[in-house]
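Researcher: Last one for today. Full complex below.
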Amino acid sequence: MEESKSKLKLAVYWAAACGGCCVSVLDVHEKLFDVVAAADLVFWPIALDTKYSGIEAMPNKYIDLTLFNGAVRNSENEHMAKLLRNKSKILVAYGSCAHMGGIPGLANFTSKEEILSRVYNESESVINPENVRPVPEYEVKEGILDIPQFYNDVRALSQVVDVDYIIPGCPPQTERLLEVFTAIVSGAELPQKGSVVGAGIKAQCDDCVRKKSENKKIKKFYRPWEIIDDGVTCFLEQGVLCMGPATRAGCGHRCIKGNAPCRGCYGPPPGAADPGAKMMSAIASVIDEKEPEEISRIIEDIADPAGLFYRFSLPVSLIRRKVM
Amino acid sequence: MEFEPRIIAFLCNWCSYTGADLAGTSRITYKANVRAIRLMCSGRIEPSFVLRAFAKGADGVLLCGCHPGDCHYQEGNYRCLRRYKLLQKYIRQVGIEPERLKLEWISASEGKQFADLVNSFTETIRDLGPCKIQKTMQVLT
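Model: Here's the assembly. Have a good evening.
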């Protein structure tokens, strides 16, 4: 690997992720030339043929900036999280999965045993009379083959290693990444460690473009397909559950501009530790009903509150997994 | 050792805490399993308070406010009621028995009712046994 000394060394890694975060990095399009002018990409599995052994051979703190996306779901993810932490000066939790566990974190509503049993025994298309299950190590005559250990819990990056900054989003907005990157390259003063960067400091609703009234009064909740959105009025006021009140601004309202309610990928706004609790609080405020039975009937329409309110954040929430 | 439930009770300043106080000044004895937290209004009880109580090891959580129509701030107790209903649905999904969270209206004159409530709720939780949350949260890999 040939790099000039003046250039930043940049790494991007995916753990338990879908690949969307890496694609959001690729979405810098022609700006990639500016990026490579300022930085050498030393490790990026989606785009470069680099090996784990290459990282292991690097001295500690060799990489200037690592964008780590994906949750920690198995022993390989954990190994890479710890390895990249040691080799990086700045480790960024990039995207909802590294930030809060993300979609893979929804697996915390179940357990390792339930998942393996579903996949290897119960699934309609599976025939497995010998109950074959993946084993982490298997001996063949050439030696021992191994695959990563599958964990019971999905964790966010900060639950495994020390994280310097967080860039939230599913995926993060590419423009925000470029701003952060440009700031680092220009040598600007970096924010306090642990900060969420590349995002706003208010809730989505504060700068949402939809029309809102002071008093929201809701008698019925609708799934998005049950109602024709007028394209103008606040989703909550129309009775469509929108995570806006419990979500940090900064994404540019991509979903709302596409006439879909907010799903909460940017995580809770500052000061709200638990997005789901915040959302329950907000919803309780807008329901226009006082009779216990009627309230029960109204919230009957919220089919899956746990999955909806904690879609991206279950592993970092107050009750971070299903109690077994 | 016999299991002693740990119960957190959130009591509103104007009715329920005063009701609990009345139980005390009336020298009514009741189970010592409840740790009372006074708030200005049951509408101040954020869902995160309840979830944090469970996460930190409470076996049961009791929410008490003024009777419907009696809230010192007009509507706080209705807000509490709606949050309670949502919380009930949520904690059931995450595997906490809904019986561990209870909402009751206690007025300032209902010292006896408060004592009875604490006694009966303590027994409910005792029958349910310890909340498994702490144990579950320890398992990581």
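Strands of chain B lie at 7-12, 34-39, 60-65, 101-105. Chain B touches chain A at residues 46-48, 51-52, 54-55, 68, 78-79, 81-83, 85-87, 89-91, 93-96, 131-133, 136-137, 139-141 (CB under 8 Å).
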